[in-house]
Amino acid sequence: MNHDQESPAVVDLGEAVRMFHRLVPPDVLHAQKPPTLSTVFTPWVVVWLMIYQRLTCNATMAAAVGELARLSADVLPDNKRAREKSFSANTGGFSRARDRLPVEMAQRAADEVSAALIAKSPPSVKGRNAFLVDGSTLSLAPTDALRKTYPPARNQHGESHWPILHLVAAHELSSGVTVRPEVGAMYGPAAIGEVPLSAGLMPRLPVGSVLIADRNFGVFAFAWLANQAGHDFVLRLTEKRFRSMVRQGKAQGKDQWELTWQPNRWERKSNPQWPADATLRVWLHEVRISEKLTLWLVSRLPDEGCELAAIYGQRQNIETDLRDLKRTLRLEEMRGRSTEMVAKELASATVAYNMANLIRRMAAARVEIAPRRLSFNRVWSLVKVLLLESLDTTDPAKIQERIDLVLRMSGQCKLANRPGRHYPREVIARRRKFPLRPRKRGLKSRK
After folding, report:
1. Are the CB atoms for 103 and 344 separated by under 8 Å?
2. pLDDT of residue 347
3. pTM of the model as a whole
4. Is residue 206 within 8 Å of 179, Cβ to Cβ?
5. H helices of 120-190, where?
6. Enclosing H/E stretch for 359
7. Which 8-state DSSP code applies to residue 385?
8. How many angstroms separate the CA atoms of 304 and 255, rounded?
9. Closest C-alpha to 163, from 28, 336, 303, 349
10. Rounded distance, CA 178 to CA 165, Å?
């Protein structure tokens, strides 16, 4: 696929389905598994309908089949049923087609879209792409298959009901484009941490990227994986780890040290595949932000501490990015009941997020502000209503008119700027739907 031919910065992309058609031509997917002549639910059609379900508020399969009737002839297969649109309104065919779709096809579609959009993203740090890396979890449908792959959490009272999926995501710093997350088990004998999960994520990023992550990733293992993949990093450290590393470093000025970073014996034991000379040349920085906040940073970039602190200060953007992905697109309401279907839905959600985010980027460019200054939720609502649910015309002029309307209205969805407000993280307990009444001891049950 030639990414130079795809230009997400232009305005005349057409409706969302045509956008996806440009980013992932049907030939890209059909080359892996050519459909038969009479097939309506080709791999491309199935992938698009799954994306449509995520774009339209986790729509049902019945709604997706209804969307099939509105697809234009240039994206449908060239056969009699498709030309006459004589396919059934029942959902059984689509359901079976979703099951038959290989996981690799849905994932390739997600990777193609991400790569195309990242290639057009402006550089963020020193002429290079930068990515915010963080981990999160998702609750899945309570099926035996998913409980086996993604065991529920346990405590002193026993096992929970919901399978928990552990994921690590990476979002491009300037544009917000996300790559397909890497997933694994959060609990159980096959549980995997955020750092090992990130190993599968790094090959999806452009070589030479800069990775920005918090203290959970501020360890030698993550830095080594990033370096081996051809990336640099800006990582936050815990104070204890920072003080230990400073004692081995060489001062290079005020609050800056140079260090040949080596793994400790516990890291060596956990990673016997590392070579004996596994070391990294890094710089340590102690940056005082305020009386209550000091950043302890490690980086491969030979920049001043204040510059690195400014770069790391943008890490909070991934918190809202993950919220948009999980809540706005309702990723925590995935209906998949098998490991394979969850993987397909996750790939489709990645494409849906990037397409909605693309509209936000285009609208932000019109009003000359950063994309994240526009509300993703409100932009997504406009895309859903004006580009998907109300697309009742095939006239290019009318379609372009609606695109312009979406971009103009999206440019007005600015987030309020309220300096001084602070919302610390806190756990909010779920309210019970019924009152708990204490039972008196010694009472006999009624007969």
Report:
1. yes
2. 93
3. 0.83
4. no
5. 144-149
6. helix 339-367
7. I
8. 10
9. 336
10. 18
**Neighbour count for residue 25 (Cβ, 10 Å):** 15
Residue 270 structure tokens: 């956990």
Instruction: Return the beta strands (E) in 376-436 as ranges.
Output: none
Q: Copy the structure tokens of residue 26.
A: 């049907």
Joined tokens for residue 282: 């890094």
Element (H, E) at 380: helix 376-382
Closest alpha carbon to 8 in 154, 112, 146: 112
Helices (H), 77-163: 80-84, 92-100, 103-119, 144-149
Are the C-beta atoms of 171 and 321 separated by less than 8 Å?
yes
Which residues are CB-contacts of 405 (< 8 A; sequence separation ≥ 6)?
386
Residue 374 contacts residue 415 (beta carbons within 8 Å) = yes
Token representation of residue 283:
């710089």
Closest CA to 311 of 292, 297, 323: 297
pLDDT digits (tens, 9 = 90+) for 6-44: 333 333 333 456 667 666 777 767 666 666 667 888 888
What residues have CB less than 8 Å from 34, skipping those under 6 apart? none
Q: How far apart are CA 377 and CA 379, in angstroms?
A: 6
Give the Cα separation of 388 and 212 in Å (integer).
35
> Do 312 and 212 meet the contact criterion of CB atoms below 8 Å apart?
yes
* pLDDT over threshold 80, residue 237: yes
Task: Kindly state the percentage of the chain with pLDDT values over 90.
Answer: 41
Alpha-helical segments (H) within 101-140: 103-119
Q: Is 212 helix (H, G, I), strand (E, B) or coil?
A: strand
- pLDDT of 221 above 50: yes
- Residue 51: phi and psi, rounded to 5, are -65, -40
> Would you tell me the crossing angle of helices 103-119 and 339-367 to the nearest 10 degrees?
20
Residue with tokens 């200060």: 313
